[in-house]
Write a structure and sequence with these properties.
Layout lengths: L12 H6 L8 E7 L4 E9 L5 E8 L4 H21 L5 E8 L2 H4 L2 H12 L5 E5 L5 H7 L20 H20 L8 E5 L5 H10 L3 E5 L3 H10 L4 E2 L3 H5 L6 E4 L10 H4 L4 E2 L12 H7 L3 E2 L2 H4 L2 H9 L5 H9 L1 H15 L3 H21 L1
Length: 368
């Protein structure tokens, strides 16, 4: 989904919700539990395809307004992601406001679970930045609409496994579209962020014969990859990575906004395909990429493996079944590239059209 991020000063939260193109959400719930310190926002963008599904982000926002806007934007993105992943789920997202290293507690997570449960299944939660499998096990004690749990807790475990696999499928599709061969053998791939998802992606790339260059703000994340794979090269930061000579693919796998007015002109890669959400810093970046001849695999398409994995928990988790569905990200990505070429638009716009078409068809069926 093309990422448009109005600020609180630009529009105000209510204007964003009710009057901007980024609005149209069905429901926004503000949650507070003073005893545990919980302040949270649950945003449900759409239930056209089924119950809204999306993770819980735990982050120290600069303001409460910023947290609400982030929840709105992320929930809308989940509607598009779930639609193109072929899931019978709409889009939702929750954010818990505060530093998780300071504020997170069992009492807070249980309180949050009670708020999610109060929605009666309209929203199904999972992990996101700042929350982990162990956290979802706690939330699940108060809320049966919780996924991303541990195998011991009846869940699928770490969803980053299939997230990375899906991104790898998106890269294979990009290689097929651009170079006529769905392999990364002999290609140089730069991975920015080798944490929860990125280090799994590195494994897939090396197994496929790619040359891998990495960077991360956390030295321990770099050290883990380099100790296991000494053939991998590390560079100082993202600025150095995007300027690496001979780079074929750039994979942003950290926080959003990686593609902006400064980074796009400096990119040496021919393809951008990564796990990070909301990679486009503002509208028009996708056109800037296209004007430079850089193929962009829309983030919410290729990083859908994780949500495919957690959605499968609701049916009694079967890893083989979930992986088979995540493998289809290859075909979906190719279809988006074909639609973009046929319509003369960037891939991000083509992905939006396909997602909106599926949601509109679902709404039409419900109206009959």
């Amino acid at each position: 989904m093309t990422d448009v991020r109005p600020t609180a000063d630009d529009l105000g939260v209510l204007s964003t919700l009710f009057r901007s193109e980024q609005g149209g959400h069905e429901q926004v719930v503000l949650c507070q539990d003073r005893e545990s310190g919980l302040k949270a926002v649950i945003a449900i963008h759409s239930t056209a395809l089924g119950p809204a599904l999306g993770g819980t982000r735990f982050h120290a926002y600069a303001s409460d307004e910023e947290a609400v806007l982030d929840a709105l934007n992320l929930a809308r993105g989940m509607s598009y992601k779930n639609a193109l992943a072929g899931l019978d789920h709409g889009g939702g997202k929750a954010v818990i406001i505060g530093d998780p290293d300071v504020l997170k507690s069992e009492e807070l997570l249980l309180a949050y679970g009670r708020f999610v449960a109060s929605l009666g299944g309209r929203y199904v939660t999972a992990c996101d930045v700042g929350t982990y499998v162990a956290d979802m096990d706690v939330v699940a004690r108060e809320c049966r609409w919780t996924t991303g749990r541990s195998p011991e807790g009846g869940g699928a475990g770490d969803s980053s496994v299939l997230t990375a696999f899906g991104v790898f499928q998106g890269m294979r599709a990009s290689a097929q579209h651009l170079w006529g061969d769905p392999t990364l053998r002999g290609r140089k791939v730069g991975v920015a962020g080798v944490g929860k998802v990125g280090h799994h992606l590195v494994e897939h790339l090396l197994q496929d014969g790619a040359e891998v260059v990495i960077t991360d703000v956390r030295q321990e994340s770099l050290d883990r990859v380099l100790a296991k794979h000494p053939q991998v090269t590390a560079v100082a930061d993202t600025e150095a990575l995007i300027r690496t000579q001979g780079l074929d693919i750039y994979a942003p796998c950290a926080l959003g906004g990686a593609l902006d007015d400064d980074s796009v002109p400096a990119l040496t890669a021919s393809v951008v395909c990564g796990a990070a959400n909301n990679q486009l810093a503002h509208p028009g970046v996708e056109k800037d990429l296209a004007d430079r001849g850089i193929l962009y695999a829309p983030d919410y398409v290729v990083n859908a493996g994780g949500v495919i994995q957690v959605a499968d928990e609701l049916h009694g988790f079967d890893f083989a079944r979930a992986k088979a569905k995540a493998t289809k990200i290859f075909d979906t990505t190719l279809a988006i590239f074909d639609r973009a070429k046929a319509d003369g638009i960037p891939p991000a716009a083509a992905a939006d059209r396909l997602a909106e078409q599926r949601m509109a068809e679902a709404r039409a069926r419900r109206a009959v």
